[in-house]
Amino acid sequence: MMTDGRMKHLVWLPAKTLEFLGDPPEGLEIAPIPDDIEHAERLGDVEFLVISSSLPSGNQPRGSRPKPAGPFEDLWDRMPSLRYVQTLSAGVDQIVGSIPPGVSLCSARGVHDGSVSEWVLTAILAGLKNIVPFRDNMREGRWEPMTLPGLSGANIVLLGYGDIGHAVERRLEPFGPGSICRIARRPKEGIHTADVLPEVLPRADVVVLLLPLTEETQGIVDSEFLAQMKPGALLVNAARGKLVDTTALLEALRAGHIRAVLDVVDPEPLPADHPLWQAPGLLITPHIAGLGAHFMQRAMVLIRDQLERLAHDEPLRNVVRDGY
Predict the structure, then answer these.
(1) I need a labelling partner for 120 at 20 to 30 A (CA). Which of 10, 26, 69, 156 fits?
(2) Distances in Å between the alpha carbon of 186 and those of 17, 191, 222, 285, 318?
(3) Could you tell me which of 321, 323, 299, 319 has the C-alpha nearest to residue 310?
(4) Active-site residue list
(5) CA 19: distance to chain centroid?
(6) In this predicted structure, what is the pLDDT of residue 68?
(7) Buried (b) or exposed (e) across 120-134, using 16+ Cβ within 10 A?
(8) Are 72 and 51 in contact (CB under 8 A)?
(9) Tell me: the pLDDT tens digits for 144-176?
(10) Statement: residue 178 has pLDDT above 80
(11) Mean pLDDT over all residues of the chain?
(12) Rounded Cα distance, 140 and 48, in Å
């Protein structure tokens, strides 16, 4: 489509997002992703594509999590105008390897900070305060008081310290933790690398996983990692299931060595007959930490800003480098 003698940039978004977008910037043509993508007439004109695994299509198998790229992975070679792919997820591990050369991938870093950090705080408190065992006792009519640990004075390890890690720390501070060890890929002032894990794991009361999933981080929580954890410590995973060796985790839980609260698991979704469901000392939520009630409104603030930048030929935010 032409405007003032110039061709508009064609942008495709999931249909469910359009009501939150408002009026598009001038110079852009906004359209919903067609139901029949493969036979869409304008497929080759799309310059900016927004995709989301949190918005499954109607024909998605029940209980499954769709790939972020969906059917587009087989259509990249038919999209010569494509310049940007924007996810609505902070993690991009499922799609980063399929993006064609010359196309920039942008994450939704920053959109999920509030909801994920709230989930982490909830998970820590629920784990430390034995909420699940108390719920089970309630159902059986058992009254069994016990002394419980708390966040005050607790030693916390944040394994992965980006925007979400910083948001988690802000929410932990009012509880007066004894220490917070920040671990990231690159050292900075006050931030360590994973080299310190053998030193800090035996003292940590809570270990929170917030790492991106990469070749280096896959399986980082293995039997050796778990054995180094303090007996009775709490493992919280709000990142990716494949960071954890599931077999090693099962062994550690069954031995009563640690407890865990997981929003992500491997495999995912977890089959109904998987032994993790029955593991002692474990609470599982179905990958919902980032799905806050106002997720779409927050996501559209980012998308609107990205589209303004596209319309004015300015650099986009959250361009993925080094795989995440």
Answers:
(1) 69
(2) 35, 8, 22, 30, 18
(3) 319
(4) 240, 268, 287
(5) 24
(6) 54
(7) bbbbbebbbebbbbb
(8) yes
(9) 999 999 999 999 999 999 999 999 999 999 999
(10) yes
(11) 90
(12) 55
